[in-house]
What we know:
By secondary structure, the chain is of the alpha/beta class. It is built from 14 helices and 14 strands.
Amino acid sequence: MRLLSGGKVRTTDEAPAHTGTDTTAQPSRRPRTLLAMASGLLDEVFPAPARALLEETADLQAPAPVGEFASPGAREALARCEVLLTGWGCPPVDASVLERAPALRAVVHAAGTVKTFLTPAVFERGIVVSSAAAANSVPVAEFTLAAVIMGAKRAFPLARLFRDRRTHRTAADLGRQHWLGTNGLRVGVVGGSRTGRRVIELLGALDVDITLYDPYVTDAEARSLGVTRVELDALLATSDVVTLHAPQTPATRHLLDARRIGLMRPGTLLVNTARGALVDTEALTEHLVRGRIDAVLDVTEPEPLPAHHPLWDLPNVLITPHLAGAQGNETARLGTQAVEELARFARGEPFAHPVLAAELERLA
């Protein structure tokens, strides 16, 4: 079965009917694959080149992506599929779904985190999982680099001042001249995740000093990245820019609490493209309202903030609508990486971007 634009179908050679429930069997040459994601994503995530590769690689089991597993058509396709190719809007894949998917061998996610829809039952059954988080980290890191450069030049508050006054800045407007610009900045990266490492790589193009906090990164690994590993309190107290790239877990909730935000020096720029829950919003608001620090927040807690929250109107705060991740033509990277992983599975090769149960807790 092949998908055309809008979910129309043209039939091709069909895979043999599934005749057993032996989960140790090898996948077919073109794995029976079910797309599970929000409607309307097909053309965005799988533009023509990726779509063609997908149709060559997989035997698609439904005429369009499914957004639920309860309807008769979805249940029938689920019973046959060897691979779930998932995306944003995929319904939860729990034990009850797995019971209806006896042939399922792999989940390939054409987006970032799998923690929003995969349950531990998937890993307990030995199903292999892949994610396009590495592809999604590219635009997040690019957004972060732009935020660091623009924020370090205080472009956001000065642009607002320029808009309001229609005159150029004065010396008094600049304030904090000791770090206006990027030359010689110390940037503290919190989280040596895929995105954190990509940010470190991009920051290498600037004349900055980079420190890293990540309890899972060794000193040797930090040196290989070209950064200095420090404890979180030291990073906060010595950085001109702090950028967050840690996952949201019980241990990282309000990682930046009132005490730690208080360690940041006057004039520090905080960039958060990770998760809003990493920061105590109430404590952060106090410091931002006082103008003690600046912030670029692509994520908040809650998200979005209430309509009358004071952060909306502060000149030293830029709030963006959770757009650092793949948007528009960037989403094609996700689909392409997912199809490449599906092709590896079809050849009997391990995934290049696996999601391992042992590492799930500390992944985004």
